[in-house]
Each structure stands twice: as structure tokens, then as C-alpha cells.
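S2.1 Query sequence (DUF4142 domain-containing protein)
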Amino acid sequence: MPRLNGSVLVGLAIAGTIGALAYPVVYSYPHRDDAAKAAAVTGETVNTQWGPLTALDRSLIVRVRLAGLWELPAGQQAMQRSSSAAVKEAANHLIVGHNDLDMRVRTMSAQLNVPLPSQPNEQQQGFLDQMTAASAGDYDKVWANLLRTAHGKILPDIATVRNNTRNTLVRQLASDANQTVLDHITILEKTGQVDFEAIAEAAAGPSASPTGPPPPSPGVVPPVAPAVEPTGNVVGKSKPSPTTPGVVNTNRPAAKDPATVGLGG
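Output C-alpha cells follow.
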């Protein structure tokens, strides 16, 4: 009888140990996304299989999505309202570029569990309203300058994320977005409607202080700067990527279908 009691006690101890070990697994599975959801709200960094995902990383994903929500409709509107071939070409670049980027961020949303907006924000809707309200004579200028200004503002932010991120998916998105934004800036400027003075004044702001070297002196020719060349016996085999002046190469692999990608996939 004592042996029987001992066996029972040992069995109970083993069962209790197994239950204690299993509980965290059983409990954690339905709650596996809680930490990521909480981090999205608090701005904390989330660890993913592609590297840490920071608040700045998530902000870029959302901003790329928001850009498409107003710039793609802006492109479609210009295709209908503008009579300028250059504006229509720029509009086509907007439609193609943001259709591609939107598929990429929707795929990333599924992979990284980052919620995306479905409507442009208030400021972006205001841009669309300004375009809609513009007269036929002013439309091209209003359209081109609103879009050129917006692209110019996000370009340095993309560069910041590209430089700082430790997440490989976000790094690739920043590279893709940089290509697309530069392409859009280039094609918008080709419309001949961009007011560079207004953009420069808005970017400088009233409190900006001048930076860089002093202005050139009239009649004074600066000395020719020496070439930057390697020292020693260095044989260069690579060549700069071929490109057409004024054209940004945005040729890249097609985006994955968001419908086929699950969380963490």
C-alpha cells in the first residue's frame, strides 16, 4: 500500500509539471499577437523575423499607403481633366508607381501585422479638393505643384528610414519608395508647371539659417578641385549603372500578391 501511494504521488507530480510547462504554450497561442498590437499603439519596437520593427519603420509603411490613397486618384483625375501630354505622362507615372508601392505595403502589412488606413488623411483630401476646384486654366499648375511639394517633403524622410532601419523588409520598401518618389519628382518637373521659387521658399521657412560655403565672388574663378581617385594598384571593374538623363530607373521585381501572404510569411 505505501508503494501504491508513492506511485500515485509521483504520477501527480509528473502531471503537474507537464501542465505547468504546457500552460504558457496553450495560453500564448491565441494571444500571440497581443505584444505586437500593444507595441503598435505605444510606439515600441517589435522583434520580427526580418529584424526589429520600430515606430519610424511602421510610420513609413503607413505613409507610403497614404500617399497612394490620394496620389493615385490625383493621377486618374489629371488623365481626364488635363489637355497637356506632359501632365498626362506624369499622371501615368503616378498611377503605375503607386499601384506598385501599394501592393508592396499591403503585403508588408500582412507580414508585419501593421494596420493600414483606407482613406487619405484630412490634408491629403484637401489637396484633392484643391485640384477638383481648380479652373481649367489653372489646373495643371495647381496639380503639379501640390504633388511636387508633397514628394519633396517625404523624400528626406524615406532616406532617414533607409539609413536607420534594421528591418530588411522596411529597408527594401525605402529603396523602392525612393526610386518611385524620385521618378515622380523628375516627371512632374518635366511638365514645366513646377514653381521652384515657391517650393524653395516653403522649404526654407522663416527661421532657416543659411548653411554651406559662402556665395561666389563676382569675377573670381575658384581653383579646379582635384579628382577623387584610388591610390595604389587598384583595378576597377564595375561601371556606373547605365541610365538615360532625366529618367529614373524603377525596373524592379514585381510585388508579391498580398492575398497570398500571411502574418510572418
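Helices lie at 2-28, 34-42, 55-81, 85-112, 122-133, 139-164, 168-189, 196-204. The radius of gyration is 27 Å.
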